[in-house]
Write a structure and sequence with these properties.
Blueprint (H helix, E strand, L loop, with lengths): L3 E12 L2 E12 L3 E5 L6 H8 L7 E6 L2 E2 L5 H6 L2 E4 L11 H5 L6 E2 L2 E2 L1 H15 L14 H13 L5 E5 L7 H16 L3 E5 L3 H7 L2 E6 L2 E7 L5 H9 L19 E10 L3 E9 L3 E5 L6 H8 L7 E6 L2 E3 L4 H6 L2 E4 L3 H5 L6 H5 L8 E2 L2 E2 L1 H14 L16 H14 L4 E5 L7 H16 L3 E5 L3 H7 L2 E6 L2 E7 L5 H8 L8
Parallel strand pairs: 3-10, 3-11, 6-9, 9-10, 15-22, 15-23, 18-21, 21-22
Antiparallel strand pairs: 1-2, 1-4, 4-5, 7-8, 11-12, 13-14, 13-16, 16-17, 19-20, 23-24
């Protein structure tokens, strides 16, 4: 058995009104890839922050390389050989790759900075990690996947013994994920222990040696990955069985009216002659590879990007959408894939976020009718089962799944009949995913019409009544859910020529 490099025993942490960690145990062996999983709010990030000194634990013991370990901050943890790669990248776009990696540790020739030496150090590091990246290129020129690789290289350049990866594949393509896994395996062979935090069960089965599960701040258990199924991990995470069977047939009657018709829509380089119809009560799935033009299509319909040509009809009548407010006035709501950047104001309360699209409905002169707001927001908090201590809770203190529900509440309060969900479950755990799925299905039953963009084919097959597939800005296939398969979707997702309707 490999040497244990890290041991965390009975770690406890409280914040005001929240018992975040309740005697949690975790250990990591040399060269091991150890998954740390749990629903949003289970305590994963809190445990890692206690390990890296972002804040002190209240009680418990950390042993690192056989000695008591209580870092005063991430800098000390990094100096001792414990690095962390956060889900949100923390680098400077305007600097070169080499400058980002060695910032604060620049190469010098006498009293002058030496870009030549720094580029050489970076090239040697990339060669060791089998990365094909130009040290001199500006970071902003790289894909998100390549930027993630640079972040990993930066951490590894500190001669790590422990590397924490927090949702490292959230924004990566399939090829980039495979590249990342190769790097991880190489680091494992060199003795680096890795803590792998992810909501993607299939990845955990591919890359990890053991799995530790947390639930509601408590330690549930640790199992060898080879000895446990995806369903068993999920059951440990949520304390209940979650079924993910694909939909076998459409729930939409043939007589259901068309509420939105898009015809030959063109917008920029990524939306080319896009045409489709959305029926009342329908969940229309949009599938395709990254860069297929799905998000760009949604943004054009919502007025966030300029439409160059084409028509949009609402309930059979042509409408003009030049801005998001035009779309909102026509009953269209848009839940962006980047909810923190475009959908929410995380420094504001649950209540204020919920009425962001409806302020004028509650204005009384220069004031807001607070009781009316609290009444309607309270109703939707209850209806959507949003877990929050109160309506005045800051949104940044809620889990990802509950933040997503607040965005949905925002558009329901506005009474939007058409909802565009762009990657509705990205970055949230399986338990919260199941709740979002249930909610979307309930909205469709109530007569809301939904466009759902997703990169997860299992999600598309589970939720959609019909599927639109895009490739390189064009619609290449339209499928009824009955008989649809991942293979058929991928066939159309890799086609270059538009199919006839």
């Amino acid at each position: 058995m490999r040497e244990t490099v890290l041991s965390m025993t009975k770690i406890d942490k409280r914040f005001t009104g929240v018992h975040a960690l309740k005697g949690v145990n975790f250990d990591l062996r040399e060269g091991e890839i150890h998954a740390l999983v749990g629903e949003n709010g289970a305590g994963k990030s809190t445990l890692m922050k206690a390990l890296t000194g972002i804040f002190p634990k209240d009680s418990g013991e950390i042993l690192y390389l056989g000695k008591l370990f209580n870092p005063t901050g991430p800098k000390e943890a990094l100096e001792k050989g414990i690095g962390i790669i956060h889900q949100e990248l923390n680098m400077m776009d305007e600097l070169s790759v080499a400058q980002n990696i060695f910032i604060g540790r620049e190469s010098m020739t006498g009293i002058f900075l030496s870009d030549k030496k720094q580029n050489q150090r970076t090239a040697e590091l990339f060669e060791r990690l089998n990365m094909d990246i130009d040290p001199m290129i500006k970071l902003e020129k790289l894909t998100v996947g390549k930027q993630q690789m640079v972040e990993i290289a930066k951490a590894v350049s500190h001669d790590l013994r422990v590397l924490i990866l927090d949702e490292p594949t959230a924004a990566l393509t399939e090829n980039e994920i495979n590249d990342l896994f190769e790097i991880m395996r190489d680091l494992s062979a060199k003795g680096v222990g890795m803590i792998y935090i992810s909501h993607r069960m299939d990845e955990i089965g591919k890359i990890t040696d053991r799995v530790t599960v947390l639930r509601d701040g408590e330690y549930v258990g640790t199992r060898k990955t080879s000895d446990i199924s995806k369903e068993e991990i999920i059951n440990m995470m949520v304390g209940r069985v979650i079924y993910e069977n694909p939909k076998s047939e459409s729930n939409v009657p043939e007589s259901s009216p068309v509420v939105l018709e898009v015809n030959k829509l063109n917008a920029g380089k990524m939306v080319k002659d896009v045409s489709f119809k959305l029926h009342q009560g329908e969940i229309l799935g949009f599938a395709g590879l990254m860069g297929a033009g799905r998000t760009e299509t949604a943004r054009a319909i919502f007025g966030a990007d300029r439409i160059e040509s084409g028509t949009i009809k609402r309930n059979g009548k042509p409408i003009r959408i030049k801005s998001p407010m035009d779309a909102v006035d026509h009953g269209i709501g848009y839940l962006s894939e980047d909810r923190k950047r475009y959908g929410l104001a995380v420094g504001m309360s649950v209540s204020d976020n919920s009425i962001l699209a409806s302020y004028e409905m509650y204005e009384r002169g220069v004031f807001i009718h607070r009781k009316q707001v609290d009444d309607v927001v309270g109703e939707y908090v209850q209806k959507l089962k949003i877990k929050t201590p109160g309506l005045d809770q800051l949104l940044k203190n809620l889990s990802g799944g509950n933040q997503q529900k607040v965005v949905i509440a925002k558009w329901l309060i506005r009474n939007s009949d058409i909802l565009i969900f762009d990657e509705p479950t990205r970055g949230i755990d399986v338990g919260a995913k199941s709740e979002i799925y249930t909610l979307i299905n309930e909205l469709a039953k109530e007569g809301k019409s939904i466009i759902m963009i997703s990169s997860e084919l299992t999600e598309i097959l589970r939720m959609s009544d019909r599927i639109v597939v895009m490739c390189e800005g064009r619609i290449t296939g339209k499928l009824d859910i009955k008989g649809a398969s991942q293979e058929e979707i991928m066939h159309y997702a890799t086609m270059r020529n538009q199919e006839n309707d």
